Amino acid sequence: DTEVTQTPKHLVMGMTNKKSLKCEQHMGHRAMYWYKQKAKKPPELMFVYSYEKLSINESVPSRFSPECPNSSLLNLHLHALQPEDSALYLCASSQAAGSRTEAFFGQGTRLTVV
Amino acid sequence: GEDVEQSLFLSVREGDSSVINCTYTDSSSTYLYWYKQEPGAGLQLLTYIFSNMDMKQDQRLTVLLNKKDKHLSLRIADTQTGDSAIYFCAEPAGNQFYFGTGTSLTVIP
Fold first, then answer.
1. Would the CB atoms of A48 and B95 count as touching at under 8 Å?
2. Rounded to an integer, what distance in angstroms lies between the CA atom of residue A67 and that of residue B85?
3. How confident is the model at residue A98 (pLDDT cuts 50, 70, 90)?
4. I need a labelling partner for B39 at 20 to 30 A (CA). Which of A6, A86, B8, B56 fits?
5. Contacts with B46 from chain A: Cβ below 8 Å
């Protein structure tokens, strides 16, 4: 099983809403990532968790709050987002951070902020 | 961050070969990867090459690596309409992956 599952697939939220994106993998990977991708651009790294600890935060605004409850799950909590935060949010996992092995990606959550 | 460069667009006729190029910066990368992204979808790992290899073939895909020039290419033989997508090369560096700018491949029937 090389699958990374993300829910929901689509999300529309208002600027005052609070919502969460979820990501799950059962490959025993110990590194998990959140990326943000705008249309026709490469993914931009937001956060890296290694062994359930946050190892990289790429200067992401505090309205995005990651959480790694266990080694299989990664959440991204959203609060007071702006319309420019609308994007495809991708979760990925790899055996370890700084990995010499491939990263597997989920299908993403298409987020629209209205 | 690392600069990973690709040409933005490529258009080929169905049945021809496609060659997508990538230049990267971190000479210590152990692996280099190619990902495919279809419209509205996530990234699908296509293939990868270990840095001590010059070439890797996997069915219709051939990856060539020139470490001296830090140049990576992906050749797709007998390109099909289903190959139309954006292709990203990626290199791991530090604790993350750096992606190229992406090449949009259009296959003309």
1. yes
2. 32
3. low
4. B56
5. none
The answer to whether the CB of A103 falls within 8 A of the CB of A33 is yes
Kindly report the nearest CA distance between residue A77 and chain B, in angstroms.
20
Q: How far apart are CA A80 and CA A73, in angstroms?
A: 23
Phi and psi angles of residue B27, each rounded to the nearest 5 degrees, phi first: -75, -10
Which chain B residues are Cβ-neighbours of A24 within 8 angstroms?
none
Q: How far is A114 from chain B (nearest CA, A)?
A: 19
Cα gap A20→A76, rounded to integer Å: 5
Q: Is the pLDDT of residue A87 over 90?
A: yes
8 Å CB contact of A40 and B97? no
**Interchain CB distance below 8 Å, A56 and B96:** yes
**Average pLDDT taken over every residue of chain A:** 93
- Tokens 């001296």 — which residue? B68
Q: Give the residue-averaged pLDDT of A7-27.
A: 96
pLDDT number for residue B88: 97
